[in-house]
Structures are given as structure tokens and as C-alpha cells.
Amino acid sequence: MKTLLVGYRAADLFEKDRRGRRMTARWLDGDTTCHTLDIYDRHAIEKTHHAKAICSAHLPAGPWDLVKFRTGPKLMSGELSLDLLQEIHRLSPARFELDYVGRESGRNDLLAKIKDDPGRVRDFSARWKASVPGIEPVEFTSVPGCFCHRRLDEGGLALAEVVSRELREQRGGASLRLLDMGCGCGLVGFLVAKAVPDVSLVMVDSHSRAVEAANINAENIGIPAEVILSDAGTPSRMDGTFDVFVGNPPYYSDYRIADVFLETAKRALKPGGVCYTVCKNAAGLEPVQRRYFPDVEIVRRRGYAVLKSPFYRRSSAMP
Ligand SMILES: C[S@@+](CC[C@H](N)C(=O)[O-])C[C@H]1O[C@@H](n2cnc3c(N)ncnc32)[C@H](O)[C@@H]1O
After folding, report:
1. What's the distance, CA 106 to chain centroid?
2. Ligand 1 site: residues with CB under 6 angstroms?
3. Could you tell me which CATH number the domain at 126-310 has?
């Protein structure tokens, strides 16, 4: 039976054997494909369960005998649930199962939203404007699943403001290559490229919907960008080619992801380049950033801390 699993993570694909030991669920057989929106989840499923997994912004075409969708208020936004339900409906699987994590009433509310007209195609994308001093507001598009969908992140905006001001003041008219890691819909990179002349952009995100939104914005804003789907930074062919790194990393999982960002920054920057990150509270991130860059200057903006580090040269003594 050709089965598509939507919304499942590696941790959801275990069951207990008779002795209570965790093992890969037996129902995860060879004809099952796990769809993920984040490439990290795809890699985790492949590594942990050796199962078939794909990562894409939209669900893969069938035919599917069964589609199982795992969702709930703690797993994803209501809008993303509806968007994916809509896609599942269009796939017309022979059977559909909703694996709802949460209260029965929440499950019923979700299904009630599509009950009368399951075939209605709603556009859940959102458009909103953002700006930094000296430029006209820029219109951004975001899509469900993408970080900062329907809203602007103040941390990202603080980072864009500090970086554009400094690059305008310090870099004169020199052309610059900028890497925006964890780009989301591209807020930071596109604002900086609007404010500073002659910036060429590379963007990376592990989430396929972020990559989709950043590509839409490159087109609509009219600024070319190479947008890469990756949870491990830029490819090695780009090592040592960037003048500026910007990153607004997520801070869950004990700075593990911030570590991936900073490791990429150190690999990607040219000597003389600068790494900028942003966070709410510098005390947690500063020691992590110092492991990669010995100098960290803190610039306060909008209640956030922008951590700025010059990159001097490559040294085998540093991680
Ligand atoms: C806090 S959001 C910042 C988004 C955007 N730069 C902004 O400031 O609005 C962090 C982003 O990092 C992405 N992310 C998480 N882990 C990642 C990884 N290992 N590699 C690349 N991006 C990652 C998330 O998908 C998310 O889009």
C-alpha cells in the first residue's frame, strides 16, 4: 500500500517492542514515504529509521492509497494545518487518516473548517511591509510554515538596521557578497541589499517554505538571490567567499543551531569579513560566538543585541 506520511518527525515513528524497547514502527514499510517541510527532519528520519523521506514545500503527487497527517496546535499553526489539509484533498488519496495531537474539540474545529467545502482552495500567503532608515518600505510575502508568517520579526529587523547602517558608513561603494543564514522569507538580506549598493545575496534555510518565500521575494522585490535549502550551511565551494554574514538563529536546543550558524559563518567569510548575529539576550550567545570569533562587540537595538565579530584570518587553532 503506497502511504504518504505528512507532519511526522523521526521521534513519532517509534513503537515499543514486547520488552518495552523503542524500535522503528513496523507499519513504516518500504512503500511509505515521509514528507517533511524541514530538511533537518528529512535527514533525521533517514538516519534514524532508514525510511524513504522527501523534503519539499508542497506534497508530492500520488497516487496514494493512504495519506496520514499528524497535526495539532503544539505541532504547527492552524493555518499550516489547513493549508496541508487542502493539499491532501487535492491529492485525492484512496484513504485519509488524521492523527490529531490535542483535544478532540480542536480536531473537530479543524475538520469543521473544511467540512462544507473541502475543495475550496484558499491562499494562505500574506503580504506585509518592512523598512530600514533611508529606504522606501519593501513588500514581503510569507507563506504558512515560514518563520514570521504574517508578521515581521523585531530581532531580524534590528539586525537589518544595524548591518545596513554599518555597511553604508564603513564600506563606501565597494561591492559586497552577503550570506543570510536562516533567511526565513529573506527579511534581513533583502532589506540590507535595498539599503546598501552593490550587494550580492546568498540565502540559506533548512525549511522548504522559507526557501519558497525567499524565492518569491527575490522575484517580487527585484533583487536576485541564490537561495539554498540546507541544514548544514553553504556548500564548501563557497568557503571563504563572503564579506558579510548575517544570522538570526533559533535559540532552542541549547544553542546547537546557533553553533551550526557560527561554524558556517567562520567557513564562509573571507579574511576581513564580518559576522553579525542577533538575539534577545547576549549572555547566552556571546560565549558561543567567542568560540568561533575571539572579538564580539554588542550593539543594542530595539531591545535586541546584535553581536558583531570581525574575521581576521584562518587559523587551525580555532574550531
Ligand atoms: C529566527 S528565524 C529568522 C528568520 C529571518 N532571518 C528573520 O530574521 O526574520 C530562524 C530561521 O532559521 C531557520 N533554521 C533553523 N535551523 C536551521 C539550519 N540548521 N540551517 C539553516 N536554517 C535554519 C529556520 O527555518 C528559520 O527560518
Report:
1. 27
2. 40, 147-148, 153, 156, 181-184, 187-188, 204-207, 210, 231, 248-250, 257, 260
3. 3.40.50.150
Report residue 107 as a C-alpha cell. Answer: 480536531
Query: Quick check: 317 pLDDT over 50?
Result: no
pLDDT one-digit tens code per residue, 244-268: 999 999 987 778 999 999 999 999 9
Q: Which ligand 1 atom is nearest residue 148's CA? A: 9
Could you give the CA distance from residue 99 to residue 83 in angstroms, rounded to a whole number?
16
Q: How far is ligand 1, taken at its centre, from the CA of residue 208, in Å? A: 11
- Taking CA atoms only, the protein residue closest to ligand 1 atom 13 is 182
Q: Is the pLDDT of residue 115 over 60?
A: yes
Nine cell digits for residue 24: 522503528
Burial classification of residue 30, based on how many CB atoms lie within 10 Å of its CB (0-12 exposed, 13-18 middle, 19 or more buried): exposed
> 131-160: string of b/e by CB count within 10 Å (b at 16+)?
bbeeeeebebbbbbbbbbbeebbebbbbbb
Q: Which residues contact 245 (CB under 8 A, 6 or more apart)?
A: 178, 179, 181, 264, 265, 268, 269, 273, 274, 275, 276
Euclidean distance between CA atoms 301 and 178, whole angstroms? 21
- Ligand 1 atom 24: the closest Cα is on which residue? 182
CA of 250 to the centre of ligand 1 (A): 6
The structure's pTM equals 0.95
β-bridge pairing 176-181 and 95-100:
unpaired
Strand 242-247 to strand 126-130: parallel, antiparallel, or no bridges (unpaired)? unpaired
Atom of ligand 1 nearest to the CA of 189: 6
**Domains of the chain, residue spans:** 3-115, 126-310
Tell me the per-residue pLDDT of 165-206, one tens digit each, with 9 for 90 and over.
Answer: 999 988 777 899 999 999 999 999 999 999 999 999 999 999
Evaluated on CA atoms 167, 174, 192, 283, the torsion sign reads negative
Crossing angle of helices 256-268 and 282-292, in 10° steps, is 40
**Amino acid 316: pLDDT:** 46
